[in-house]
Design brief:
This protein has 781 residues and is α/β, with parallel strands linked by helices. The chain contains 19 helices and 30 strands. Strand 26 and strand 27 form a beta hairpin. The longest helix has 35 residues. The protein is globular, with a radius of gyration of 32 Å. It starts with 6 loop residues before the first helix and ends with a strand.
Length: 781
């Protein structure tokens, strides 16, 4: 039995001595109290003065006041006199707390333990810090110490970091017993993805490409060659210089860059094979670096290609392994999800190799911070799984300094669970809900969250961290579902009569993700309608109602009101989103006249609105065929070539409405049916197609695009050829290639060819790897 547990035997004797006093308590410190105890005493004094509206003294020495209930903080000789044995050693951050019968004691370990005990004591009094902006301090006229049974609290994870906006507030983070940002900056000299800092390509690649990855065809600056002895010495030397600049820092990351371009040279490949994973080669390298700095903790990543635990090698005693769950599904708890079985295996295997396991977990929708993301039911079981497998450090990555869907509530819940994964989740939720949202609004918010979660589990059970409201549009976010979710909020609107009240603002913010969903799903729902185009006789174009435009125009102001400055991890602003949506309204829907029979029948649609004097009509026609010489990837839009003619243009997200070709050229032919007589062929004067660039994701414009037309479907005439210079460019872009004729021609077929450059260029971090071209919407008019 640990020595400090004997303290429990003596506590009841001590607490029976004092009788409860009506005066506010006094805080008792040892005569030579350490700075952490003095700081904790000042914090407790501040809040007790607010609670009691009376003076609360801090006393030090060997005597207690006769007229006030004492609250002992930290070690104190008086405790020994009253028969209390305090532990010689208390785990860092842990604390012991006992209150009642007219006195209290709070005793903690390390620099923060006593302060953490003070925060728990204050919460027992009814204090809350829901967000940095929303706190509650009760007023208690007849103050009495709360009854708290003797309790020892030891954190489940010695290191707890929460990457959410609220956690960057020092006082909020300390209250919730988290690693604070200033403390992290003191403790971490380098933090993840550090190869490029320890052996910079700008300094070494030109003269020594052998220091860097061999991808089977050429050297790449994406990663280091870890079997190169000179590289190891360079990293040790440069890390040593950085340690001299910041000697106080305890943790130093020596870890792979954020890409897949690891070295396949013969020595590295042999090492990978020997250890059953590239993680073995990485560990050999990192262990050698760690040996040069035995007084520091050298952190490295088990991430993507190094996630699988190796065989035949263990991390050194001063090496910490950070295992990342980036690929995992958030729709089910990890231990219950068949698709996460590989990650579960890796956690279990790494925990057998090291006592210094860190988990980097992801709890937000990174591609779209405002997308509904019902992962609530996974937060507690996942943390319990990490605790079960002896993780010592946990980093929960949310939306950083940006706000995101229910980020205040997620941050609060995660902070409580990171301290104690076995805490009562219902109690935490109820406490936050009633305190933050109030008794009237809480049931509305809970019904909405429950409905999202139930629909997810009924239909899909898959929730990835890189998605948008378009991804679940055919499962738990159908048009019917979206309407049902809004109907829940309508109940809340009926309760809130004054738009200026706190409840009204909280309800509006809670609805923001569904408003965003509505906007995003303009891209896939038939909420636009065709109208005759006055600029083109006999042609049609898609229109949206003024109310639709007003929703988009009002989006930036709505986001600004609630502090949403960015919408994803790439700092995509609400203003840019509104600009892109208006562009989509203007260009995103295409009216395909080439797909229609010449005498297209006009049908009245009563559900289409009338704009001005224009007629409500729909033109129906016979669909033409589209064929591909090379098969597209089935990962995107199931590889369905009809996506090229679905009347919806893709945006800058390659996951939606684009056809992808990795390493292959695109050759697509659009053809009128053979049954259509030559004299009935449509007259054509315009052809266009668009391509996407997202170089960070290996998506490049094609090197060359050729547009051709054919009157008989056999012989083709080139009408446009365009070469595109591929240069480094970090922006996501759409490029449209068009050809216009001076006179119309009757056309049976159109063919387009896009030449893929096949591999990422030499200047790219993943050079030599097969790259992508993404194509969408062939328009013939």
């Amino acid at each position: 039995m640990p020595r400090f547990l004997f303290l429990f035997i003596f506590l009841p004797t001590f607490f029976s001595v004092f009788s409860q006093k009506n005066l506010p308590p006094a805080i008792i410190l040892a005569k030579n109290a350490a700075e952490p105890e003095q700081r904790a005493a000042k914090i407790l004094q501040f809040y007790l003065k607010k609670i009691t509206a009376a003076d609360v003294p801090i006393l030090s020495g060997s005597r207690t006041p006769n007229d006030r209930a004492p609250i002992f903080l930290g070690k104190n000789d008086l405790l020994e006199k009253w028969g209390i044995q305090v532990p010689l050693v208390m785990p860092a951050d842990a604390f012991l707390i006992k209150s009642g019968a007219g006195s209290a004691v709070i005793f903690g370990g390390g620099e923060m333990g006593t302060e953490y005990g003070v925060y728990t004591f204050l919460e027992k009094l009814g204090c809350r810090k829901f967000t940095p902006r929303d706190s509650f301090i009760p007023e208690i006229k007849d103050f009495r110490l709360p009854e708290i049974l003797q309790k020892l609290e030891i954190p489940a994870f010695p290191y707890r970091e929460l990457h959410y906006q609220n956690a960057f507030d020092e006082s909020w983070a300390r209250w919730h017993k988290l690693k604070t940002n200033p403390k992290k900056e003191e403790e971490w000299g380098l933090f993840v993805h550090t190869f490029e800092k320890l052996c910079p390509p700008a300094e070494y690649f030109a003269e020594h490409p052998e220091f860097f990855s061999w991808n089977g065809k050429q050297r790449s600056a994406g990663q280091l060659c870890l079997s190169n002895d000179t590289v190891r010495q360079i990293v040790i030397e440069n890390l040593g210089k950085k340690i001299l600049e910041n000697p106080r820092a305890k943790y130093w990351s020596v870890s792979q860059n954020d890409n897949f371009d690891f070295c396949h040279c013969p020595r590295c490949a042999a090492s990978d094979k020997k250890h059953g994973s590239p993680a073995g080669t990485l560990l050999e390298f990192v262990n050698a670096v760690a040996a040069a700095f035995p007084e520091k903790i050298i952190s490295t990543l088990a991430y993507q290609y190094t996630r699988e635990a190796p065989v035949g090698i263990r991390p050194a005693a001063n090496v910490s392994v950070c295992l990342c769950s980036i690929e995992c599904n958030r729709g089910l708890p990890l231990a219950d999800d068949p698709t996460s079985a590989g990650f579960v295996r890796d956690v279990e295997n790494w925990s057998k190799l090291t006592e210094n396991l860190m988990i980097w977990d992801y709890v937000v929708q990174f591609r779209d911070y405002l997308s509904p993301f019902p992962n609530w039911h996974t937060l507690q079981p996942n943390l319990q799984f990490f605790q079960k497998n002896y993780a010592k450090m946990v980093f929960e990555q949310g939306s950083g300094r940006s706000r995101s869907e229910f980020s205040d509530m997620r941050a609060y819940i995660l902070a409580k669970l990171m301290w104690n994964p076995s805490a009562n989740m219902d109690s935490i939720l109820t406490d936050f809900g009633r305190g933050f949202y109030g008794k009237r609004l809480q049931p509305i918010i809970w019904d909405y969250i429950d409905s999202l979660t139930v629909r997810l589990l009924e239909t899909d059970k898959t929730l990835q961290i890189y998605g948008t409201p378009l991804v679940p549009a055919k499962s738990w976010m159908t048009e019917k579902d979206v309407n049902a979710y809004f109907s829940i909020f309508e109940r809340g609107v009926m309760l809130v009569t004054d738009d200026s009240t706190r409840e009204a603002e909280q309800l509006s913010e809670a609805m923001l993700p569904m408003v965003h969903t509505l906007l995003e799903q303009f891209k896939i729902r038939d909420w636009g309608y065709p109208q005759r185009d006055p600029a083109r006789s006999g042609k049609f174009r898609y229109e949206y109602l003024p109310a639709h435009h007003n929703m988009v125009n009002g989006w930036p102001e709505l986001c600004q009101k609630f502090g949403y400055e960015t919408m994803n991890e790439n700092n995509y602003t609400p203003e840019k989103y509104a600009e892109d949506m208006q562009k989509y309204f203007a260009e995103g829907r295409v009216w395909h006249s080439f797909l229609l029979v010449p005498d297209g029948q006009q049908i009245l649609r009563q559900d289409w609105p009338t704009v001005g004097s224009q007629t409500k009509t729909e033109v129906t026609g016979q669909k033409i065929s589209v064929s591909l010489e090379n098969p597209p990837s089935k990962i995107y839009e199931n590889g369905n070539p009809e996506i090229l003619l679905d009347s919806r243009r893709g945006t800058t997200d390659y996951r939606w409405n684009w056809l992808g070709f990795q390493g292959n050229d695109l050759v697509a032919t659009v053809r009128q049916p053979d049954s259509l007589k030559n004299e009935n062929l449509p007259e054509v004067s315009f052809v266009s197609v668009q391509f996407l660039q997202d170089q960070a994701s290996w998506v490049f414009f094609p090197e060359k695009v050729i547009l051709e037309i054919s009157e008989d479907g056999q012989k083709f005439q080139k009408i446009r050829e365009e070469r595109i210079q591929i240069v480094p460019d970090g922006e996501k872009k759409v490029r449209r290639i068009t050809a216009k004729f001076s006179s119309t021609k009757k056309i049976r077929a159109v063919r387009l060819t896009a030449v893929n450059q096949k591999t990422c260029p030499s200047w790219h971090t993943c050079n030599g790897n097969p790259c992508w071209i993404f194509v969408d919407e062939i328009v013939v008019d």
